[in-house]
Amino acid sequence: MKLLILALLLPLSLAAQEKPPSEKQEKDKTTWDKVKESSSDALDKTKDVLEKGYDKSKDVLKSTGEVLASAKDFRAERHWIITGNYSYLDMMVPGKYGLTVGYVKDPANTYELDYMRGSFGLGWLGVDIGTIKEQRLSLLWRSYNKRNTFNYQMGLNYNIFDVHLGSKLINKLVGANYDYSVMNIETLGISWGLGHRWQTKGGFVWAFDWLQVHMPIVVLRQDTPFIDATPDNNDRDNAKTTVNIIKRFPRVVALKLQLGFTF
User: Fold this and answer.
1) Are strands 96-106 and 127-143 parallel, antiparallel or unpaired?
2) Distance (Å, rounded) from C-alpha 128 to C-alpha 126?
3) pLDDT of residue 175
4) Residue 188, Cα to own-chain centre: how many angstroms?
5) DSSP per-residue letters across 61-118
6) For the whole model, what pTM was predicted?
């Protein structure tokens, strides 16, 4: 009988020992659910933002591509072009800058007058005691044929290479005019190059002439008074070798930047 009573009371005792979920547990569960919901909402919003950004980027790229692809059509709408130029990788004197003015005959052909110049000082103890200057004037035909932006260039160039010894500061200090022409070489040559030129409907132009070669052909003038007056034969021979290199060596230009507009 006692065993029967114990068997009946045992389940009731175990059930009494089971405690209902505490308020803290319920609260923790509710907080976790909120965190999951907030995370899910944040992920959804992030996904929407990324999708909208992706779609907008595609539209911008598509629009930009259409503009770039229409350079040939835009070129047909205007007949004059002017650009400012800069070419750091330019022989013999680097860092040349200049201006280009051109006539756009049709979408396939442009005729241009291109002027570039550059110089640097010969220094000693922080004072310039001389300068090396180079100027180049080129008459170029830029041919696109049926292409959109890629073009070839060819034409003639007139080049001046000048070296002077002398300084205005030194002249003022010594009260005399010490200004010597070491060399002045003028040449006429041919030019060739290739590049890309883009244009918007509004007329803005940007371009890169990836490579240009200006080859001297004819020496129009060679004036080397300071070298000719050098008494040392060895120094004179070395100077003449330098002069021959300068007047015959091709001027190679790379990555020439152009920014301007058409009208």
Assistant:
1) unpaired
2) 7
3) 56
4) 29
5) HHHHHHHHHTHHHHHTT--EEEEEEEESEESSSSSEEEEEEEEEEETTEEEEEEEEEE
6) 0.72
Burial 224-258 (b: 16+ CB within 10 A, else e): beebeeeeeeeeeeebeeebeebbeeebebeebeb
Nearest to 184 by CA among 243, 103, 129: 243
Whose tokens are 């280009």? That residue is: 100
Q: What is the rounded radius of gyration, in angstroms, for the C-alpha atoms of the chain?
A: 39
Residue type, 237: D
Position 238 scores a pLDDT of: 82
* DSSP secondary structure string for all residues of 11-35: HHHHHHHPPPPPHHHHHHHHHHHHH
What the block records as the tokens of 69 is: 């692809």
98: its two tokens: 């200049």
Contact 261/204 with Cβ under 8 angstroms?
A: yes
pLDDT of residue 90: 96
- Mean predicted confidence (pLDDT) in 92-106: 96
Nearest to 187 by CA among 156, 218, 163: 218
Q: How confident is the model at residue 111 (pLDDT cuts 50, 70, 90)?
A: very high
Tens-digit pLDDT profile for residues 114-144: 999 999 886 655 556 678 999 999 999 999 9
Contact indicator for 164, 131 with CB cutoff of 8 Å: yes
